[in-house]
Design a protein that fits this description.
The chain contains four helices and no strands. It is mainly α and 117 residues long. Helix 3 crosses helix 4.
């Protein structure tokens, strides 16, 4: 015996390692599924709140902004949800109010005046 493992021992070690890796992968998949389900539920609640507090025109405007500027649309959604949760929304937010919210959230465009001499 030279101290080196035999082929059978190596194969057994490989099998054990493969089983451990499979168990880890299955454990991670279960966690991912739970996270995905929680994310979908939160997304559904967010959409329901937006439907409740936005008129059709405001929703269309928000969707149009989301197509071009997703970050700004996300901020506007968060703003609307915060207003709704704090109780500062009477009735529904219409398209004009949504324009105001979007305008407040958009960064001021900087004007450049170039003078030629």
């Amino acid at each position: 015996m030279s101290g080196e493992p035999s082929d059978e021992e190596i194969e057994q070690l490989r099998q054990k390692k493969m089983e451990q890796m499979r168990e880890q992968a299955q454990g991670q998949d279960g966690g991912n599924e739970q996270q995905e389900a929680a994310r979908q539920q939160a997304d559904a609640q967010r959409k329901a709140m937006l439907r409740k507090h936005l008129t059709d025109g405001a929703r269309k405007r928000l969707n149009a902004v989301e197509m071009t500027k997703p970050q700004q649309a996300k901020k506007a959604e968060q703003q609307v949800l915060a207003l709704a949760q704090s109780g500062r929304v009477q009735g529904k937010i219409d398209e004009d109010d949504m324009r105001k919210i979007l305008q407040e959230l958009s960064p001021d465009s900087k004007d450049f005046n170039i003078e030629r001499r």
